[in-house]
Amino acid sequence: MLYRLLFISLLAFSSCKRDVLFETGLTKYHVGDNVHWSAKNYNDINWKYNRGRTGNKVFWARINVDLQQRLETIGPMGVQVHAFGAYDFYWDGVLIGHNGKPLSTEAKEIPGTEAAVFMLPDSLITPGKHVAAFRLSQMSNGHDLRDVQLKLQNYKPLLRDPLIITAMVHLMAGVFFIASLYYFLFYCYSKQREYSVLIFAFTCLFFFCLLIVEYVKYYVDIPYTQFFIRLKAVGILTFLIASLIPYYFSIQLGFKWKRQMLVLMLGAYAVVFVIQYGHYDYTSMLFSLIMWITCLVTAADATRRKVKGGAVVLTGMLAIPLVHKFALYDIALFISYTIIVTCMLYLHVLRARVLEEQYESTLLLSSRLQLELIKKNIQPHFLRNTLTSLIDWVEESPKQGIQFIKALSDEFYIMNAIAEETQIPVSQEIDLCKKHLSVMQFRKEIDYVWQDEGILPDEALPPAVIHTLLENGITHSAPLENGRMYFKLKFVTTAKQKKYIFETHARNRETYRDQEGGNGFKYIRARLTESYGDQWTFTSGAAHHGWVSVITILT
């Protein structure tokens, strides 16, 4: 709603009728200083249209104005002057005002602003021929020989309209600032840190800065000596925005040639910068054009591949030329950027929905595998074999049979306690593994030895992950010559990652059925994804001493 209101309002401002009809002649210049040159009837036939370099000298400029028609009810008339330097402004020989203070024999120049507005007396605005004269000095930026230009309009709109537009633009800037802040926090505190979110946050921040820098000229007096600082800032911000937006679209729309596109785009920016150096507005316009072409190609490719959201982005890109056709360039530029950022936000929403669906799917898979893992421990053949071994132990050694029953009970108790947890302390996971080894030692009459190294008891990890690796080691390994099997869990931590290394020291009976599949490995991957998103790796493979599995968690 805000963007629609802004769009309509800005179009209204850009298409309003002129309340003063006038024509101006070419500006004439003459180096020297004589107040009589401000007179309406002064003969300036020998003055030059090319001002040339004036150095540290005072010079004059005159503009013939033909005031053709003016609405009688519009109030005082104003003049908006664009010029570099400090000057005194005369209208038909009458001193109207000052912008800065020109150089004189008594004092140094006080720089004026690039744009200034003056109110003309009613007695001097009759239809017909008039002369605007300027006594100027330009002590700085002497290389910039820009002409003195003026525009006649109702005085109140000259002051009011820029402030109204600035207020609306600043409302829009506030929206982008809040959006950038939100997505910066979202990125920092998200488990799944996607660079596209960070790019979007920076784009909103740079666009906020661009809006502020572009319109600060309407309420902050910027001396002409510092005029180019703002233009350079606008150019830098436009370059950053024009670089980030196409890259964001290429990521979200799955563009195949991201790097090639980025290299070509930056190369085009470099060529434009070198060729158009010093032409700040034109450079920014070319940057925006290159960005638009790149985004259009990316969106068209995504539409061809039927990527979700590609058609919406393509429609937004095609709407931008229409905006430029019906609105002034400055206004159309910001409306175009708003359309682009809205398309970026739309793609982000689509991506967030996909991630939410993936997360829900992971939760469902984790729950299903969790139930399957519990069922595996109480399935008929497990119970039958365990109870058969239990009967034998009770008959042969009641004391050992009681220990067997207690170990089995403790394992089931821990398994039931952690069934609904997302993460548990590693110390509890080790207790579960030791209880399982005790049960399996009674069942298979093999001496299982547990070892751990560098363990931090309070470190958390998904439940039954190490237990699953232990089960795989028991199932797919045979004892060493001494009748033992060794299991060792090592924990290594650095500033960037945490690593669990689980080693099985035994003879490999056979290669695991499918290193990418199997309920055990599926369960481990599902649990890791549930807890850490994509910030983890899992490898498992044969080693000279048996088998090694490594879980790496990125921090």
From TrEMBL:
PROSITE patterns, per the entry: PROKAR_LIPOPROTEIN
Assigned keywords, A-Z: Membrane, Transmembrane, Transmembrane helix
UniProt superkingdom: Bacteria
InterPro entries recorded: Bact_2-comp_sensor_kinase (IPR050640), Sig_transdc_His_kin_internal (IPR010559)
GO molecular function annotations of the record: phosphorelay sensor kinase activity
Coiled-coil zones: none
Annotated transmembrane regions: 163-185, 197-216, 228-249, 261-279, 285-302, 309-327, 333-350
Residues annotated as domain Signal transduction histidine kinase internal region: 370-444
GO cellular component assignments: membrane
The protein, known as: Regulator
Origin species: Mucilaginibacter limnophilus
